[in-house]
Amino acid sequence: MSLLDLLNAQGFRASVLERVGALILGCSLLENQLEVVLWQLGKWPEPGEMPATDKMMASQRISTFKSLACEAAFPELRPRVDEFADAAENILAYRNAIAHGYPIGSFAPGEAGISISNTRWHGEKRKRDSQTAHLDERVIDMVLEALFLLLKALHAGHWQAQEEMKLPAMLQSPGLSKARLLSDEARSLSATVNGERV
Prior knowledge:
Blueprint: H1 3-9, H2 14-41, H3 58-72, H4 78-99, E1 102-104, E2 113-117, E3 131-135, H5 137-156, H6 167-171, H7 176-197
Antiparallel strand pairs: 1-2, 2-3
Helix pairs in contact: 2-3, 2-4, 2-5, 3-4, 4-5, 4-7, 5-7
């Protein structure tokens, strides 16, 4: 028996596992590319120097991006900064619920599993709120599409080592509004499912 067999036996379909793998890798790309954007907007690290972003959690990188990008962007592009940041927050919260949560599979026809982070099932206190990821293929596909749109926006900016900053191209990339809508919907559906099943 392999780990994939074990997960399948616990109610996680292969199609879900494939999508979760893509989500984890895509979020790694997002976090790493966002770090380079922060260097461009803030201070590029000197050789041998530890960058300020090294100890930042993903949520801190997003809030720092929002702050620096709003300072650097034309006023008419500031709503686009919010769209990017909101979508990134939703996507990474969904990913964190999977990567750091408790997965619960499902064998019921038409039902999907969930993963819940920061549970309080035993009366314990947590420093973070509980997050739920509904592991339905359609919901994961919404998150993957939103993630793809953010990665496309980052690519549109052509953020490369110490090149001239390309924030306007990134923020004018089509799809940021759709990324926020998709990620909002996935987060809302996950919260609804959590309320119904747990």
